[in-house]
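Ticket #4471: complex job returned nothing on first submit. Input attached below:
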Amino acid sequence: MGWIEAPDAADQLLPRQQAASESALPAVASATISGAMTLIDLANPSRFLALAGRILPWLMAATVLVLAVGLYQSATAPDDYQQGATVKIMFIHVPNAWLAMFVWGMMSLAALGTLVWRHPLADVAAKTAAPIGAAFTFLALVTGSLWGRPMWGTYWEWDARLTSVLILFLMYLGLMALWRAVEDPSRAARAAAVLTLVGAINIPIIKFSVDWWNTLHQPASVIRMGGSTLDRAFLTPLLVMAIGFTLLFLTLHIAAMRNEILRRRVRTLQMLQASKSAA
Amino acid sequence: MALGPYASFIVMSYAMVATVVAVLIIWVIADYRRQMARLRDLEAAGAIRRSGRSATEVK
Amino acid sequence: MTALAALIRRDVRVAMRVGGGALIGVLFFLTVVVLMPFAVGPDLALLKKLGPAILWIGALLASLLTLDRLFTADHDDGSLDLIVMSRTPLELACAAKALAHWLAAGLPLVAATPVLGLLLNLDATATGAVALTLLAGTPALTFTGMIGAALAVVLHRGGLLLAVLVLPLSIPVLIFGVAASNAALSGPSPFGTPFSILCALSLASLVIGPFAAAASLRHGLD
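Support reply: We reran it on our side without changes. The output follows.
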């Protein structure tokens, strides 16, 4: 099998599209054709590369801008009456925790894309998202631990939330190990897709069971997060940072997908060369 | 900006995030350069893509 | 149905043979339980408190070890390809193999629990509770472990990768198994609640496990 380069199917549509626009087609029809072209672009690796090259500078600029605004707002945010200045850790901890979950969700959709719809780029999306998601999960754990020391007096607590995120981190690592266990990307893709979907079912189960386990053991301290009724002075920096980190993920992910497509091109060319020299 | 008695924790957190994000960015850029270099070498060695286009084409 | 029954009988027989690995699992269970007091210390009161947890971890690790053989033995001699290609639905075949594995490897662990409970200073109620939770929970361990076993055989990697993949999936089973055992011993909380959730997890794994394992095998074997 392997990841073979198919002739550019989209190219064969081009002459027809030009002919269509030259003839007197209604605007709706040509808009539909160009809309369909975008979807095809996303499925075709070469088209995706071109698209990525165009989008990335804008994404990078947007990321830097939003994160800069967010950092400024975090720096100038007032102190919490209970936590003091350590509430500033929340502005980087919560976005990372949120992204850790979001990335697994996105990988689950990609896994469905691989197994059910056989989308050509679904496994590229899944493979490249895993290390980035693992990094965000790691950051969520570290910033949470550093936030916990002033708040609870301990670096680690077998709190339901911390424990669930730790297990999520282990699952990310297991998934990354699975991706690297096999040389052929498309075989690893299907196995990883199954594991991602099983993990997606398992994450709420773990969250629920760790919650139960924790209440059974009576936590040593009462955890206060400041509640969901966050004051606007804290909510705004938090949301801006969340958007900034999401943009950061999108930028990194699309760039990594581009790298992965290039890596597979290298592999295909190497295999073609090897078979030619063997012949 | 007064960070209070736990300033080191706050600074550490932001520093960790900055470090890991920097590592991710460097990894992505370095990987891109590595793959493009390999593609250039392959093209120089005479490898041809099945669609006939250049190996280093990213547009 | 005859095909599935034959598959179960074959697997149980192979597992019971010398080198089949089923009874080795019990031996490993015994070894782990014996090791614990060396690490924890001989304080009987402490061992009694930790008893259910030690037994559960021992059972978890023992099933993990025997799961390695679930598909690899068949893959090595080519019978896995025959099973995948046969007319019996692959999901049912996987379920049958898991059932056979549980009969040959899981049940002996449950049977060994009373003896090991003595080593950990557990009284009759405690041992009974742990044995009951293991009886309800080991199917979950086997059926979810089967997912990891299928993934590992498809990728020609065994051992540690299997363990790394399976352990996060087994954590909820472990939590509720130990919670139920402890509830039976001491707690104000009733035994029934965590025990029924444990049963629910086992029943859910009876469905999810075969489907996920069959999907891996189908997509992965070539």
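The mean pLDDT of chain B is 89. Closing as resolved unless it happens again.
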